Amino acid sequence: MSKQFDLVVIGAGPGGYIAAIRAAQLGMQVACIDAWSNAAGGAAPGGTCTNVGCIPSKALLQSSEHFDHATHHFAEHGISTGSVKMDVAKMIERKDGVVKQNNDGILYLFKKNKVSFFHGKGSFVKAVEGGYEIKVEGKAEETLVGKQVVVATGSSARALPGIEFDEVNVLSNDGALRIGAVPKRLGVIGSGVIGLEMGSVWRRLGAEVTILEGMPTFMPAADQSVAKEAQKVFTKQGLKIELGVKIGEIKTAKKGRNTEVSIAYSNAKGEEQLLTVDKLIVSIGRVPNTNGLNPDAVGLQLDERGAIVVDADCKTNLPGVWAVGDVVRGPMLAHKAEEEGVAVAERIAGQHGHVNFNTIPWVIYTSPEIAWVGKTEQQLKADGIEYKAGQFPFLANGRARALGDTTGFVKFLADAKTDEILGVHIIGPMASELISEAVVAMEFRASAEDIARICHAHPSLSEATKEAALAVDKRTLNF
Predict the structure, then answer these.
(1) What is the pLDDT of residues 464-474, one digit of tens each?
(2) Is the pLDDT of residue 450 over 80?
(3) pLDDT tens for each residue of 286-311
(4) Residue 342 — φ and ψ, nearest 5°?
């Protein structure tokens, strides 16, 4: 006999588990289905973000940053460490522990909020009176009926045509987080978030890292003043970045006890090149994950990319069926999925959920960190919008000097007539935290003058935000 619920959520990534919790808070009987398993076969909710994305990558970035500081920067502070070694196995073990803490935290939140959790793969069976029948394939098969359904099945790494991920030598983000020893030579195809972050981890630990990017410009989605600064800094750190390349044949071959990966490509000049590495990370984007969902059983509409078609409110073509996160249009960001999850739960409850795509922040957790919200300068020019720009370097910030990290700057873009903030772009220490002030300001349609008039603590990195706002009116105080 099927189990009846007001809402069934398929997927327990950031969009799914948050939607389930918010719906339960609003008084609904909620089930959440998720297939992720840990090494022991137990439930591992949290999706790509928790298991092979945001959380484990930040754990490795933190470990590698500590190592980098110990080997290159402690001496500046008068700290003598002697010989410093990295135990990669211990680093991976710590990362796995951080992931498990997050998995267990979500299971606790389900219990706390009385969300019924089902460990297995969820798929549509048919529309029934008053809702939809959903099958759960796990250790035991279950049948659920939901009056409403939220699909939050996330995304999967996109493979290059002709070579699949083996997660040993040719790696997606999953395999990149499980490398057992520092590779001498690491290749990365794609200079997106995953490629830059994982390249940074292994570069800090001693790998020779080469990034091959097909686009002619570095980080084209970012403001180009930030992108140029980032490319300069990353190159100085030792990342070799080649732009405008065209990838050819990729081969794996045994060499003694090891396996090498060779990548044939042509560079920006059209010259044929060959790169040989010990490990290759392919980071060329992600694809919506609808495999096994069985959308045809109920007539759920997908687009040409395999994404679920939704309207501005995340409604699908089917009454009572919604979709959020990476499996629908928009940026594939965990926090975007969370906001959509909350909004959909509230809409189902008859409230007015809110998601503002114009104020979703973007962050790259390299060193220096990179973060932005709103329009870039090139977008404003393309749209014909008159604007003013203000910029302030961390070199002139007292807290950054004390930290020993003065790389980068904060940049404000404001409407030339109204002074409303149109975009804020940061490259430098703790950019991921600093960007939140800009998000709040833009959400309330603040002006650059508003930020310039707010008292910021001294000494703090956030003073660079205030000074950049002052720079819009050409009246910085410390530069």
Answers:
(1) 999 999 999 99
(2) yes
(3) 999 999 999 999 999 999 999 999 99
(4) -65, -45
Q: Does the structure show a pLDDT above 90 at 1?
A: no
Distance CA 262, CA 420 (A): 50
Burial per residue of 80-101, b for 16 or more beta-carbon CB atoms within 10 angstroms, e otherwise: eeeeeebebeebbebbbebbbe
How is residue 379 annotated by DSSP?
H
* Phi, psi dihedrals of residue 406, rounded to the nearest 5°: -110, 20
* C-beta separation of 176 from 205 below 8 A: no
Is 196 within a domain? Answer: yes
Domains: count for the chain: 3
Task: Let me know whether 238 and 147 are in one domain.
Answer: no
Q: What is the pLDDT of residue 381?
A: 98
d(CA 325, CA 341): 8
Pair 31, 128 in one domain: yes
CATH assignment at residue 314: 3.50.50.60
Query: φ, ψ for residue 402 (rounded to 5)?
Result: -65, -35
The span from the CA of 244 to the CA of 273, in Å, is 13
For residue range 310-360, list pLDDT tens digits in order.
999 999 999 999 999 999 999 999 999 999 999 999 999 999 999 999 999
Q: Is 458 a catalytic residue?
A: yes
Q: What is the pTM of this model?
A: 0.96
Domain of residue 93: give its range.
3-157+287-355
What are the phi and psi torsion angles at 388 (to 5°)?
-120, 145
Q: Mapping DSSP to helix (H, G, I), strand (E, B) and coil, where does residue 149 land?
A: strand
Q: How many CA atoms lie within 13 A of 150 on its CB side?
A: 40
Q: What is the rounded distance in angstroms from the CA atom of residue 307 to the CA atom of residue 287?
A: 8
- Judged against a pLDDT cut of 90, whether residue 2 lies above it is answered with no
| Residue 262 to residue 264: CA distance in whole angstroms | 7
Residue with tokens 């819009």: 472
- DSSP category for residue 284: S
Per-residue pLDDT tens for 131-186? 999 999 998 899 999 999 999 999 999 999 989 999 999 999 999 999 999 999 99
Buried/exposed code over 166-187 (b: 16+ C-beta within 10 A; e: otherwise): eeebbbbbbbbbebeebbebbb
Which residues are within 8 A (CB) of 62 and not within 5 positions of it... i.e. 6 or more apart?
Answer: none
Structure-block tokens of residue 180: 């057992």
